[in-house]
Each structure stands twice: as structure tokens, then as C-alpha cells.
Amino acid sequence: MTAFEPPMGLIVELTHRCPLQCPYCSNPLALERAGGELTTAEWQSVFSEAAKIGVLQLHFTGGEPTARRDLPDLVRHAAGVGLYTNIITSGVQLDDRLMAALMDAGIDHIQLSFQDVDPDNADRIAGYRGAHARKLAAAARIRSAGLPLTVNFVVHRQNIANVPRMIALAEGLGAARTEIAQVQYYGWGFKNRAALLPSRAELDQTTATVEAARARLKGRMVIDYVIPDYYARRPKSCMGGWARRFINISPSGKAMPCHAAETLPGFVFPSVRDTSLAAIWQSDPAFLRFRGTDWMPEPCQSCDRREIDWGGCRCQAFALTGDAARTDPACDLAPDHALMQLAVAERGETPADFVYRRFGANDAETPIGETVP
Amino acid sequence: MTMTLRDDTVPRFPPGVKFRFDAVRAAWVVLAPERLFLPDDQAVEILKLVDGARSLGAIADDLAARFAAPRDVIAADVAAMLGDLAEKGALAL
Ligand code: SF4
Ligand code: SF4
User: From the first residue on, what is the mean pLDDT of each consecutive set of 10 residues in chain A (373 residues)?
Assistant: First the structure.
């Protein structure tokens, strides 16, 4: 058997700890506690291995990656083995000292996430008083350190009207890139779907706003735009296809093709504590399960987009249909596509209350994938 | 493409963007914030000349001296390739 092409990116969830409590957090409902996290040395040996098998970019995420005190040591090691280092952070703990330590360690890029432009609403969504003001300070720190800044806004029905102001804020902060990313409905986002999903009209207006801003800011700021699958005709190419480009590692070292994969039943994901990354990438059954096109049902099997979107997202197929091996219902050719309209109809006139992301808040009886009638 | 590129424009890789050789793939790669590009052979020849000092004109001269193609054709290719990369945020012009 010839080896499969090397992975491009390694996404490491250093920890699930986070001072914020965003109700759309992409972490699993069962959060990992600090005691189970990989040690500094364990992470560093994973990074060395990753570089050796061809990983090019390392994305530090969480939880909140800055909750790990050894973050600068981890960045230094990753940069030392030649990886491009990127931190995805809420920024509330990014003070002068940490910024200086990260620069010294060789960080390449920081992505800062915002909850809104309006400070009160932003703090309410984050479940953390004063978060927004700290983020603004963090953005200024990143810029004055000379790093490029990416600003990420997570958009949903409770802040979508502010998208024009979000773009203006990003411009004002000197961001080179802005992500206007609609919530993706996995993990906590799926649990809070009715409270978050915007209407079709809101979405269309936002799309028009983004397109106009893109034209105006061409060459100055790149805007990445992600729409919710619920209004798409075709699914997105989730992670560039199952186990084709990325390896995601959980705080305790579980390797998965995507961060949401932990929700899938019947999978035993390998641990980097006892299996090499090379073996995981080339031959782990969980990685091979949906790689390529052999596993596909119809209509994907005979569709000419099967190597473009790879049949969409496995976790979404499971969350909505209870079967991870079905065509992503986001596709309007999928037999289950009607489920998307059903969810839109269910969202109601006034948004439901948030279930905030907390340790232990998952004890309620709604495991992901069970809310579909 | 609305940006006007002139012969004396000096392209450079901005902070956060790296152009390097990847030994595993035996290929050059452009690493940028949350993006990466695998340039083709022609693009690699152009990008190797991007050093923050050479202008577009100088890059075209250099390539014209080494490859059998008219200089203005090469200059147009260079401008198109670099302009495209700049629009994606991976190059400063
Ligand atoms: S989405 Fe919010 S709660 Fe989840 S890790 Fe990011 S900042 Fe923390
Ligand atoms: S049928 Fe399958 S492969 Fe074709 S567009 Fe839909 S999800 Fe993609």
C-alpha cells in the first residue's frame, strides 16, 4: 500500500479550561479536566513527530490555549522543529508579559475571537464581565508586537445585525484578516441551536454586507465568510475531507480527524500517548473509516462533487440523522435534507435561553444528536 | 484586480507569511495565517526572487534572462501571480 499524502495541519486543543462560557463553543459537551491533559514534554514530542511526517502548520486552540502556563515553551519547541505556529485565543489573558514571551518563542500568528462589537452583549454571550475590553487591549498588543492580526467574529441571531460594525471594528484594529463565521452547529452550538440560528433574511442581508465590504477592502483586508449549513445548498468540505488534511488532538491526547468527532459512537480514537502520529495517519481504523470515497452511500457515490466536498460533515450527518455514514443533510440532494428546514422552522420567533458552556452543564439528558424528532 | 502594479513595485512577504522548502513533500510552500499555498514550478521561480529588495521589473528581467520567453509576457505573468497572492493576504505590494 502506498502512503497517504502527509497531513497539512495539526490542531491541538491544549486544554478545555477557559474563563469564557460561549454557548456555541465547539468543545464536546463532556469537557476534559486539567488532570488528564498531556504534559509539556508529551506535547513537545507530538510536535516533533508532526513536523517529521510533513505537518506544516500548528494551530494551538482549546478551550483557551493561554490557560496553559507552558504555552510559550510549546510555541518555542514547535517553531524550533519548523512548524508555522498559530494561536487561536479569546485574548482575555493576553497581557504584556505573555505577549512578549510568545514573541520571544517565535509565534507566527494570533487569531483573536470576539463575541460581538457591543461590549455588553459581547460580555453576556461570553458569560464573562469585561471580556470585550480585554480583547480590544489584546488586539492592540498583537499589532504593536508587529504580528499580523486575524479577528474572528462568531455570528448568530443574537449579534448578526452588528456585522457591518464588526467589519468596521476589524478595520479599526488594523486586522489583515477577518472571519465572519456563522456558528457551526456541533457541540454546544447544537445544544443551543434554536437560540443561535439566524433567519434566512438575516443571513441574506449579511451575505450582501460581506460582499460589499470585500469589494471595498480588496487588497487591504481579507474577509473569510462562513454561512450556516442550514441555509446552504451544498455541504462544506468539512476539514477538507475526513482525515485528508488535519489531525486534531484533544487535551488528553486523543487523535481525531476533526474536533467534533468525539461525538461519533462506535469509534475508538487512538491516543498519541501510545501510538505514533505516522501510524495514526496511515493506518488507524478511525482515520480510514471515512477517508476517500469508498464508504459513500448514494447520492454521493455517483455524484461529481464527491471529491470536492467529500460528502460533507460526518458529525453533522450523525447529529441530525443518527448515522454518521449518511450524506450530510446540508446537501439538497441528500435524502435527509428536509431536516434542515425542520430545524429552521423550530428556531421560533424569540431565541431560547442559552445553555452556557460549563464543566458539568452537560449532565442534562441531551447528548449531541438526540434532539431530532 | 484593482491594485495597480508598476515595474518599480517591490513585493515582500509580510510578517506572518513564510515561503520555505518542505523536505517531506520535496516542494516549496507558502505558509500564511490559517492558509497555505503549494505554488507550481513557475510560481516558485518567481517567489524565490521575492526578497523585499527586488522590484517587479527586476524580477521580470532576471526571469527573462533565464527562461526563453519575451520579457513583457514574463512581466505580465509575474504581476498576475503576485497580485493574486497579495489579494489572498500572503504578499505585500
Ligand atoms: S468558544 Fe468561547 S468558551 Fe469555547 S473555548 Fe472559545 S472562548 Fe472558550
Ligand atoms: S450528493 Fe454528496 S457528494 Fe454530491 S454534492 Fe451532495 S454531499 Fe456532495
Answer: 88 92 78 89 98 97 93 98 96 95 97 92 89 95 95 91 95 94 81 85 92 92 87 87 95 93 89 97 96 94 94 91 93 91 76 62 31 25
User: What is d(CA A146, CA A102) in angstroms, rounded to the nearest whole number?
Assistant: 12
Residue B70, in any domain of the structure: yes
Are residues A56 and A85 in contact, defined by beta-carbon separation less than 8 angstroms?
no
Q: What is the CATH number of the domain that holds B83?
A: 1.10.10.1150
Interface of B with A (CB under 8 A): 2-3, 14-18, 20, 22, 24-25, 29, 31, 33-34, 36, 86-89, 93
Is A84–B31 a contact, with Cβ atoms under 8 angstroms apart? Answer: yes
Interface of A with B (CB under 8 A): 6, 8-9, 52-54, 56-57, 59, 82, 84, 86, 108-109, 111, 146-148, 150, 176-177, 218-219, 222
pLDDT tens-digit readout, A206-224: 999 999 999 999 888 999 9
Which range marks the domain in which residue B34 is found? 18-87
**pTM attached to this predicted model:** 0.90
Q: Which residues contact A331 (CB under 8 A, 6 or more apart)?
A: A233, A234, A235, A299, A309, A311, A312, A337
Q: Does any domain span residue B93? A: no
Q: Name every chain B residue with its beta carbon within 8 A of the beta carbon of A220.
A: none
Q: CA of B1, closest CA in chain A: separation in Å? A: 8
- Total of domains in chain B: 1
User: In whole angstroms, what is the distance from residue A339 CA to residue A326 CA?
Assistant: 13
Distance to chain B for A48, nearest Cα, Å: 13
Q: What is the pLDDT of residue A37?
A: 95
Task: Residue A244: name the closest of A58, A30, A7, A13 by CA.
Answer: A7
**Residue B33 is nearest to which of A56, A86, A219, comparing CB atoms?**
A86
Q: Cell 424528532 belongs to which residue?
A: A373
